[in-house]
């Protein structure tokens, strides 16, 4: 997952009175012209970060890669946030943002990076695409207790059928040259991502840029701690980095953590949730295509069929009747 700012408006809450888009500039001019560029940035850039992480971890251990990426991105973003927002957060706000950053980035995104060491990037992105199912389940069990509709149940069913087709351990085909246990790592990371996302709108947090910077930085620190515990030869890996891995990290920082991250933050504050949520099923398409066309990852007919079913399931879960 390359995962980002908590999708606060993604959670299915009770219907509210329809409000117009908050897309007014500082001079009162509408900024709806930013909607399409922001969506394209989230669609393409977030989908491409799976491949970026896949390339980076060829030379740098995954937790170390996440730590370097998010600490650099968070530090620079925090400096910009203090200059732009001109307000220091309270201790409580820092602690709350740190908790969300630990769940989303420290565990969620780092778990995705770790799984990419063993699995194709397109398939990892498809498991992450099942996040709406975890949103609905955890929200019902621990937060809103909102009942699940028929459309949502159908979507969940489609999603799990598709994932079974992709990762079917009973299949006799030879295209699965990766272990199945990393699926559990991605699922655990996804559930932490969802938990943090559900907690986020219920906690007192700093202003948007400062909140994002703290979450990013703390997530990077958590990834470095896990690297120190679970990985070896960190210093040697850094010293032996080539222009390829350096370029991958730079891409993830600039495009994934800044442009894509900022675009998503703008969307959750200015676009209807049902539009913002479409990234969940567009990203896997981008990741699968890039993994196949650039990284040479295999995409069998069974995997393709499962991918279509997963995406169909997420569409059913995220689109509203009206």
Model description:
The protein has one domain (8-15, 39-318). Helix content is 69%, strand content 0%. It contains 13 helices and no strands. The chain has helices spanning 35-56, 62-85, 91-115, 121-128, 131-143, 150-167, 182-199, 208-230, 234-239, 243-270, 273-276, 279-293, 301-318.
In short:
This protein is mostly helical. The protein is 69% helix and 0% strand.
Number of domains: 1
Percentage of residues in DSSP E strands: under 5%
**Structural classification:** mainly alpha
Helix content: 55-70%
How many distinct beta strands?
0
Q: Measured on Cα atoms, how large is the radius of gyration?
A: 19 Å
Instruction: Identify the quaternary structure here.
Output: single chain
Largest sheet: none
* Total count of helical runs of at least 4 residues: 13
The CA-CA distance between the termini, in Å, is: 30 Å
**Inertia-based shape:** globular
Low-confidence stretches: 1-30
Q: On the 0-100 scale, what is the average pLDDT? A: 80
Series of H and E elements? HHHHHHHHHHHHH
Keywords: Membrane, Transmembrane, Transmembrane helix
Protein name: EamA family transporter
Domain EamA: 38-167, 182-318
Family: Belongs to the EamA transporter family.
Features:
13 helices, disordered N terminus, globular, mainly alpha, 69% helix, 322 residues
Secondary structure topology:
Elements: H1 35-56, H2 62-85, H3 91-115, H4 121-128, H5 131-143, H6 150-167, H7 182-199, H8 208-230, H9 234-239, H10 243-270, H11 273-276, H12 279-293, H13 301-318
Helix pairs in contact: 1-4, 1-10, 1-12, 2-3, 2-8, 2-10, 3-7, 3-8, 4-12, 5-7, 6-13, 12-13
């Amino acid at each position: 997952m390359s995962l980002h700012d908590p999708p606060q408006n993604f959670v299915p809450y009770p219907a509210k009175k329809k409000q117009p888009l908050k897309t007014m500039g500082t001079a009162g001019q509408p900024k709806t012209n930013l909607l399409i560029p922001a969506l394209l940035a989230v669609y393409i850039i977030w989908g491409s970060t799976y491949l970026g992480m896949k390339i980076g971890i060829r030379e740098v251990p995954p937790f170390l890669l996440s730590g370097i990426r998010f600490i650099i991105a968070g530090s620079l973003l925090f400096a910009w946030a203090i200059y732009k927002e001109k307000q220091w957060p309270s201790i409580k706000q820092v602690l709350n943002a740190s908790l969300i950053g630990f769940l989303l980035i420290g565990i969620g995104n780092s778990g995705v990076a770790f799984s990419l060491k063993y699995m194709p990037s397109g398939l990892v992105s498809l498991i992450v695409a099942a996040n709406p199912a975890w949103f609905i389940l955890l929200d019902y069990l621990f937060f809103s207790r909102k009942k699940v509709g028929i459309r949502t149940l159908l979507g969940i069913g489609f999603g799990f059928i598709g994932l079974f087709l992709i990762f079917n351990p009973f299949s006799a085909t030879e295209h699965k040259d990766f272990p199945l246990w990393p699926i559990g790592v991605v699922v655990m990371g996804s559930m932490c991502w969802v938990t943090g996302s559900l907690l986020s709108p219920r906690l007192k947090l700093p202003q948007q840029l400062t909140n994002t910077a703290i979450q990013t930085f703390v997530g990077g620190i958590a990834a470095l701690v896990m690297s120190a515990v679970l990985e070896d030869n960190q210093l040697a890996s850094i010293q032996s980095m080539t222009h390829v891995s350096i370029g991958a990290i730079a891409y993830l920082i600039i495009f994934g953590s800044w442009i894509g991250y900022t675009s998503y933050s703008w969307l959750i504050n200015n676009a209807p949730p049902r539009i913002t949520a479409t990234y969940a099923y567009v990203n896997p398409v981008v990741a699968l295509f890039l993994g196949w066309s650039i990284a040479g990852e295999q995409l069998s007919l069974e995997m393709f069929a499962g991918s279509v079913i997963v995406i169909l399931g997420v569409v059913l879960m995220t689109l509203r009747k009206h």
